[in-house]
Structure formats: structure tokens, C-alpha cells
Amino acid sequence: MGNQLKAKMTLEKNNKIGKVDERIYGSFIEHLGRAVYGGIYDPQHPLADEQGFREDVIDLVKELQVPIVRYPGGNMVSAYNWEDGVGPKEDRPKRLELAWRTIETNEIGTNEFADWAKKVNADVMMAVNLGTRGIDAARNLLEYTNHSGGTYYSDLRKSHGYEQPHNIKTWCLGNEMDGPWQVGHKTAYEYGRIAKETAKAMKLVDPTIELVACGSSSSSMATFPEYDATVLDIAYDEADYISLHQYFGNKEDDPANFLAKNMEMDHFIKSVKATCDYIKAKHRSKKTMMLSFDEWNVWYHSHESDKEIEAWTVAPPQLEDVYNFEDALLVGSMLITLLNHADRVKMACLAQLVNVIAPIMTENNGRSWKQTIFYPYMHASVFGRGVAIKPIVSSPKYDSREYTDVPFVDSAAVYNEETEEVTIFMVNKNLDEDIFLHADVRSFEGYQIVEHIVLQNEDLKATNTAKKQKVAPHSKGESKLQDGVLEATLKTKSWNVIRLKKI
Ligand code: AHR
User: Fold this and answer.
1) Catalytic one among 83, 112, 176, 264?
2) Ligand 1 mean position to 75 CA, how many Å?
């Protein structure tokens, strides 16, 4: 006990960061690989419902309590004609899908996806094509989805069997327009102009919508943060959010360095906030720009195997990362980072949701299962609703190849005033040792421990399969709370969720 590593925390209920917008637990379904076809939709499957959607997958998504799902891309949206995906299925064209070089059958489109989203109790975050198309296609799609009737596109929707509008509230103005890989890639000025004018037209069609302008597709882009600043300078009044995307890899197989990568996410968020606030000051604006971290995850396992996939096939197994335990730890730390920015990050999408760099996997016409990253994502989404409280933590630190002063303990806390519950999320990144936590929680008088959930595995490379959940949580964490002092053992390499409730 004498030499045991120790961390100290003070949790004070008035030390509020901000209300957690539940949409930070969003996710993403792109027409890519087997996300749609073979993932959420598989009409031949014994568990398919009357529309061909897999009920086992619906149940898994419901377990995650995903509040919003981005659709239909991603890179795919930048050459997508939304009109191909509506109307009688037999009339829908098959197209070359340019982003991922596959064949898109268009069996699923806007209306079916809106139906699916309802089934999983999620809202849709719809992206418009600002790559090959522009203002006209965007305003027509919005008229189709949100206008009540009596006009060409709203009546077209009715003729397709959808009497009521879908009322989609959140829209992305294109996708990763800073990326040279994007079909219709644009300079910051070109994109800023089209984003502003598209936003103007869309808000004339439906002033109740909210719009996300594209920022940088990662903090390592050479054009970051100038791209973001230019776009905001042009479209500050029309946009409601600026997007951030970030994926982390671990090719070097350096776990200590890999687990520190959420520090880069933290730095990215701080830099985008500063960029937004600079433009706010420059414009003498009263509006504070909010952030939409609408793609984030670990992504690297499938990079090599994807090179072998034959072009121009339907729904090939692209981006099928098999996540291991260390990926789940980093995903947990990334969720902690998002929570600690709850005042400015109002939406975030774990990219993606099914089969494609996803927490849920399926076999075509077969089983479905939970990947390792399913668990931290589910815990945060289910228990992380309320107000984010900033834990004051003193944790031992380490240096890794790319990062210095990395705290071994990452933490975030969410206080739900209504249910009188507090949940503390923690990761112990120490690869060899447990850490003893001493937390002052006197501010939560009368609270007791409900549960201490732990996700832990001795093998950082352990994965889950359809047959076996090697990486799964248990509720046997070691912790006690007495006289306002919470003491817990944070096991080496572990994700911890300590739930307190007023008894
Ligand atoms: O999520 C996979 C891809 O990553 C998306 O299509 C794109 O936006 C990003 O580069």
C-alpha cells in the first residue's frame, strides 16, 4: 500500500462545466461498406422486420441510447444524388459510388433511413452534397423532408408514401471539404462561400433548422486552423456549429503513446474554440459558435486489408476494424475529453455505428455482436446525462514518445440533478499498476455508491467476436464511500464508471 500510486480528486457540485447536450452521444451511418447493406438492412435475415431492417441490430443500437445519427456520409455524400434514393425501389438507379469505389444500389435512401432512425429512437443529422452539387439540391432535399405539402418536392414526398414531413432539424453543410480526397474539394474561400449561400437558402426554406459548417477534417491538416478561420469569417452568421473530425491510429504499437492521444483531441477542441472566439471578436458578434465533433474514433486496423478489396462491388467489407481492449480505453478517454468540453461541444458522432469502424458488428444473414468500444460508449451515453462537473484531480503523470505530462488518470463527472445521481468516468492508463483514488465528494451529501463498473483485461490486444465477449464489463469494482470520502482502486489498464446516488 505504501508505494501504491495515488490520485486525489475533489468533486464539487458547483464546479459546473455546462449541461451535457445528449447529442454528444451521437453516431454515424454512411453508405459505406456494410454499414447499411448487411448492417442495419438485410431483408433476407431471419430477424428482418417488414422493411428489411435487422431487429437484433435495432436492439443493440437502442442499448446504446444513440440520440442522433449522421447520414448518408461522410465522403459518400459529396457525389450523392439524393433523388436516386427516393420513390419506387424498382426505379432507383444503381450508381458508381466514387468515394469508396463501390456500387450503390440506392435500395435505402432518405425515407427508409428516417424510418429506421425512428425505430432506434434517434434523430437524423442529414448531410447535403456540397461536392458535386450545391444550393439547389440542398434546398430541394430540405423541401422534400421538412415542408408540409402543396409544393413540388413536398408533394413528391407524399406521392412516395410519406404524408408527414420528417422534420429533420440538424444539417451538415457538406463533409470534409478541406480534404483533397473529397470529390469537389474546395479551398476555404470556395467552401465558405457555398456554405454561406446554401445555409441562407436552407434557412429560408425552414428557419427552424440548425446547420453545421465543415471545419478541418483533422488537427493534422496543413490548412488547420486557417481553413476553419476563413470559413467562419465568411459564414459566421449562418452556421450554428463548426465541425471537427479526428481518428487515431496505433500503427507503431506503442500503447502508452496511443492512450495519450485524447490529449491531442483536447488540444484540437481548445484550438477550434479559440478560432471561433477570434472570429466572434472580429465580427463584434454576440453569438458563440458551438462545436460539432461529428466524426471521432480509433481507425487503423483495416487500412491494409481495405487495399485488397475489389472495386465496384456492392457493400464490400470496408473499414471493418476489429477493436481490441486498448482501443476501448482510448475511446473511453475520448468520451471523457468530450464531456470536459460540454460547454462548447454540443454534438459528437462516434464514427461509425455498424460494421464500418463500429461498436456493432454483424455477419450478413447471421449473428451480431458488441465490439470492445461498445461498452465505454454505452456507459457514457446511458449514465452521462446531466451537467458536466469538472473534477479537480491530481494524478501521477508520464511521458510518452509524442506527449509529455500525461496524467495516468483521466476523469469526467456528470451530475443529474433530477435523479440525484452522479457518475464519475475514469481511465487508468498505467500499464502495470493499480492506482488508489481518494476523492472528496462531501459536496454530494447523502450520496452512496450504486455501482462501480469496470472494463479491464490483462491483454491489451483482446478482442470480441460473434462467439466470445472476452472484453466485457463487470460491476465488481473496489470502492467505498464514507463521510464524504470516496476511495476506489482503479485497476491497471481500466475503464471505470462509479455511480453515486442520493439515498
Ligand atoms: O468515417 C469514414 C470516413 O472518414 C468518412 O466518410 C469521412 O468523412 C472521413 O474521412
Assistant:
1) 176
2) 6
Q: Does the pTM of the predicted model rise above 0.85?
A: yes
Nearest C-alpha neighbor of 244 from the set 331, 354, 347, 364: 347
In angstroms, what is the span from residue 296 Cα to ligand 1's centroid?
A: 9
CA of 121 to the centre of ligand 1 (A): 24
Concerning whether 295 is annotated as a catalytic residue, the answer is yes
Atom 3, ligand 1: which residue's CA is nearest? 74
Q: Which of 97, 295, 326, 421 is catalytic?
A: 295
Per-residue pLDDT of the chain (503 residues; tens, 9 = 90+): 457 999 999 999 999 999 999 999 999 999 999 999 999 999 999 999 999 999 999 999 999 999 999 999 999 999 999 999 999 999 999 999 999 999 999 999 999 999 999 999 999 999 999 999 999 999 999 999 999 999 999 999 999 999 999 999 999 999 999 999 999 999 999 999 999 999 999 999 999 999 999 999 999 999 999 999 999 999 999 999 999 999 999 989 999 999 999 999 999 999 999 999 999 999 999 999 999 999 999 999 999 999 999 999 999 999 999 999 999 999 999 999 999 999 999 999 999 999 999 999 999 999 999 999 999 999 999 999 999 999 999 999 999 999 999 999 999 999 999 999 999 999 999 999 999 999 999 999 999 999 999 999 999 999 999 999 999 999 999 999 999 999 999 999 999 999 999 99
- 395 CA distance to ligand 1 centroid (A)? 35
Using CB atoms within 10 A of its CB, is residue 314 exposed (0-12), middle (13-18) or buried (19+)? Answer: middle
Phi-psi region of 96 (alpha: psi -120 to 50; beta: other; left: phi over 0): beta
Q: Say if ligand 1 is within 6 A of residue 30 CB.
A: yes
CA dihedral 378→382→385→390, nearest 10 degrees, is: -50
Alpha carbons 127 and 116: distance in angstroms, whole number: 17
Q: Counting atoms of ligand 1 from 1, which one is nearest the CA of 28?
A: 1
Helix (H, G, I), strand (E, B) or coil at 499: strand
> Is 327 near ligand 1, meaning CB less than 6 Å away?
no
